[in-house]
Specification:
This protein is mainly alpha-helical. 62% of the residues lie in helices and 8% in strands. The protein contains 7 helices and 3 strands, in the order ααααβααββα. The chain has a 3-stranded antiparallel β-sheet. Helix 2 runs antiparallel to helix 3. The chain starts with 18 loop residues before the first helix and ends with a helix.
């Protein structure tokens, strides 16, 4: 119980599903989800258990929706971007490009952090299909800034 006599809502699912896992799972259960709480009660479960299932399914559906929006925004941003971002993109085949793996090795951080810095604009980068191409000069500038801050 939480304060004020309100029962704590606990999902039936043993884990919280986020991102692509939520979208994948929701696609597979959405057809049965509509009648699942009623079917659970018909099978002998309590009203509280049926409500917990409905809550978990709603949470899963919302998480899948949010992930879908993020993916759509990422695709939209990689296609259009701002004029400033497009002008800062490295030229294809210029020899001044790095993969995120190469940039992460130079910077001493994970590949995921480099991808996040690309999305956030901390590194000058461009999307090439599903991958990022990082400007070698921006990696050098970031290394220089990190050295001077230390």
């Amino acid at each position: 119980m939480t304060g004020g006599g309100v029962p704590e809502r606990r999902p039936l699912l043993p884990a919280t599903f986020r991102g692509v896992a939520a979208a994948w799972l929701w696609r597979r259960v959405q057809h049965e989800a509509r009648g699942a709480p009623a079917a659970l009660m018909a099978a002998g479960a309590s009203r509280r258990e049926a409500e917990a299932l409905a809550y978990s399914l709603a949470e899963l559906r919302e998480s899948a929706r949010q992930w879908g929006e993020r993916v759509a925004q990422d695709r939209e941003g990689s296609v259009s971007g701002t004029a400033e971002q497009r002008s800062a993109e490295p030229e294809a085949g210029s020899g001044h490009e790095l993969t995120t793996t190469q940039a992460s090795a130079l910077l001493g951080v994970s590949d995921g952090i480099v991808r996040r810095w690309c999305r956030d604009g901390r590194l000058v980068a461009a999307r090439r299909g599903r991958s990022w191409v990082v400007d070698r000069g921006s990696v050098g500038d970031l290394l220089e800034a990190r050295r001077s801050a230390a």
